Amino acid sequence: MICSRCSERAIISQRYSGFHLCQGHFIEDFERRAAETVQKNAMVKDGERIAVAVSGGKDSTALLLCLHKILAGRDVELIAITVDEGIDGYRDDTIKAARAIAGQLGIEQKIVSFREEYGYDLDEMVRGKDAAPCTFCGVFRKNALNKMAKRLGACKVATGHNLDDEAQSVMMNYLKGDIHRLMRLRPRREQPGLVPRIKPLRDMPEKEIALYCMVKDVFTHSRECPYAKLSLRADVRDMMNSLESLFPGTKQSTMQGFEKLAEMAKGMRTQVDLRACRKCGEPCVEELCKACELLGKLNVNCITASLLYI
Ligand SMILES: [Zn+2]
Ligand SMILES: [Zn+2]
Questions:
Q1: Which ligand sits nearest to residue 2's alpha carbon?
Q2: Which ligand is in closest contact with the Cα of 292?
């Protein structure tokens, strides 16, 4: 297979576009498309400090590499934030990988841990509970990232969500009939206390992100989070992957359909005004933010558990 743009050997065949690309043209194509996503959506402005959520996995590693490349020469400062959820046998390696890539690029890295912020590791939070670990993890990770970004004076938080993640989220909300959450996937208007989030890789397929890391020769921790298989997302991911292989371009068309719906819903007030959490001051919908609500339940459980041992 020969590259569609030169006479080199192709390393990827993009079935959705019909192009075969060699290593050099693949990297060029990848970075150009990510730069287009950033530009089209005005994600980054000059003079800004951008906090990049870097877990050490392939998506966030590619994100940091790619942003570092496409923003070079612009007056933009990148700073990496790594969240340590406390997942035994998994997180230590990914934190090392995150430190390595930030160090290689000369980008400062800050680590924020669940244990320091909330008093518990994720493993402790979910032990003996029916709740899906991903619910706990998602709530506390968002909360920790937002707090850390504010402490660092960052204007935005960039996350490594890719096309597969986004298409899965859209599909999951359709399946659950949760239209409010579906509409919240759109870029939100700015709210006090909430650092705006950007997803520069949201148009890039997961496979191409893995390939980008491979050809850029960066180590990434490829093992999946041990809790991932317990979520609906895992089933939706398998379904979307088999549809994509039968009908190339399905993930893109899922997103295009969603964008059209979001456009039609523009007048609708799908986003409520946020207020400050009574306990911690973080932005939230109810009186307490989700993190404080979950923490309250955890503390009650821990007190009950310790009483049993008296
Ligand atoms: Zn080529
Ligand atoms: Zn709170």
A1: 1
A2: 2
